[in-house]
Amino acid sequence: MDQTIVEDIIKKVMAQVGSTGTPESSVAGDAIPVELSGRHVHLCEEDIKELFGAPLTHVKELSQPGQYLCKERVRLIGPSGVIDNVAVLGPARPKSQVELSLTDARILGIKAPVRQSGDVAGTPGIVLTSGSGLAGLEEGVIVAARHIHMSPADAARFGVSDNQKVDVHMDGSRPAVFKDVIVRVNKDFRLAMHIDFDEANSCGLGKNARGKIVGVTQEA
Amino acid sequence: MDQTIVEDIIKKVMAQVGSTGTPESSVAGDAIPVELSGRHVHLCEEDIKELFGAPLTHVKELSQPGQYLCKERVRLIGPSGVIDNVAVLGPARPKSQVELSLTDARILGIKAPVRQSGDVAGTPGIVLTSGSGLAGLEEGVIVAARHIHMSPADAARFGVSDNQKVDVHMDGSRPAVFKDVIVRVNKDFRLAMHIDFDEANSCGLGKNARGKIVGVTQEA
Q: Is the ipTM of this complex over 0.85?
């Protein structure tokens, strides 16, 4: 995950609205800040113990309140490949989950489905190692469905609702409209669209990229 | 380049129209077969000599008449990475050209611009090796702009013209509309949309993927 980009976006947003950290409607106009999610894992307490034998170490806050990057890293091991130095995000979750791009999934040889975070029933498994420990997941490997985090105030402003799927115009060097972008509304969310690197590359997105809702793909 | 997919598409198209190899309007309805272009190089005579010391060896025809995959392979060497076993396409061209995805460009550490094939003025260079020879390109590294090859009959049928940019709906597991897709009309072209793996992954395209023109981004 390119934290520089994420932090840069947050700084600019905060400067723009003069926020002190409590998001309401956090970006003016109809532009939605786009954040690129690199491959990462969320771990349950049991897998944290297996892999590291100690609690996760907080390094820095992420854009969504309460989520943080950890010092710990893992190796992903699949049938046809290995990916090293993969970010671990905290806090611990009830179930471990590995979020990949389709490019990553191809390298590992894992047929990962596009799913919403947390919806891991029936997904493929994977092996994780840490240098000192190993954890085998029976399921939990997904390609995270693209989505927009927003507060109720932002949802009202855009005229959208939780779990609605919308069309978003991405203004990169080769523009595209992504369909089926899931709206996720929560009072603790800051306005941010999350996509993976395949999606960013497909439309040639640069830094400080923006999206714009241009239609509704499917009602909630 | 996944030749299996390409061949599969060609077979199905040919079966559908009962063609004997002379394309006119080669697919019924408004569906456009999508072919995934993997990373590959086109070489000028001088670079072929430097790298292999002999003419290219024909292995198999590609979907566009006259274009073929060669037995020869090259290594791409950039400032921050190396990619091995890269396909060489024949015949020789006036200028060498390396076509990458943005994911590949990131691995190599090369800032490749999105360009039409052949439009390489001012693009970054690269080093190619073959095991027995080496060629240094001063320019020629591009990310190929997505495009649709079609015959004049297909262009008339779709109501589009050469060099027009169109919007194409891609019906993958996470659908999208690609803007700025360049229409290329030539009597020798078979109907096929060419995209790279970043683009295919961004919309979760499977085998036998199809696109549909849904609008005009920009007139020719």
A: no
